[in-house]
Amino acid sequence: MLPTNRRQQIRDYLNEHGAVQISELSEKFTVSEMTIHRDLAQLEAEGHLRKVRGGAVPVTPPLASAEACFMCQSTPRSQTQMTLHLTGGAAQRACCPHCGLSGLHIFGEQITAVFVTDFLRGNTISAQAASYVINPDITICCKPSIIAFQKREDAVRFQRGFNGDVLNFTEAVQYSQQVMHLH
Question: Considering 9, 69, 128, 135, which has the largest number of Cβ atoms within 10 A of its Cβ?
Fold first, then answer.
């Protein structure tokens, strides 16, 4: 397979799955991890993706200061934002995981990927892989606060200091749906 064809297939795979891992792509295309690494570097240089440790995620353009959260209309902060990527390349920004998770039902089948910012490190991560502290004793953005962490152990440490519950993505979505039905 020509490198240009492989890179296009990597872009398609990224758009479909929301994130890619070098090892996964290496197996899929039966090429070395170094070849995939070079492909991702080229695609990043062309502005098609952003390399992260062990793989790549879609490019999330920086927020314009006037851009408002699709749920509550507040201005998203970089350390708490959640982005819903939709079919056709559109993206909806939420100021925090509370609004982002609450908005999952709005876009439903249109959603191709969901990314959230790790509160401690500022990394963009897959929302499905994140751990969430729900309803801590401090309010970061919206109420009830939902804060995302890349590592579960970070979420547990945060919980020890500020209380709340540590949930995975599925549990956080269920919690969010319950809260929405109460309002």
Answer: 69
Q: For tokens 């309803």, name the residue.
A: 135
CATH architecture of structural domain 3-58: Orthogonal Bundle (1.10)
Nearest Cα to 161, choosing from 132, 138, 144? 138
How far apart are the C-alpha atoms of 166 and 134, rounded to whole Å?
Answer: 6
What would the CATH number be for the domain defined by 82-182? 3.30.450.410
Q: Which residues pair with 118 in a beta bridge?
A: none
Residue pLDDT tens, the chain, 183 long: 888 899 999 988 887 777 788 999 999 999 999 999 999 999 888 888 888 888 888 775 444 444 788 888 888 888 899 999 888 778 889 999 999 998 888 888 889 899 999 999 888 899 999 999 999 998 888 888 999 999 999 999 999 999 999 999 999 999 988 876 544
Q: Do domains 3-58 and 82-182 have the same CATH topology?
A: no
Q: Which of 66, 120, 119 is nearest to 93 (CA)?
A: 66
**Contact in structure between 70 and 105 (CB atoms under 8 Å):** no
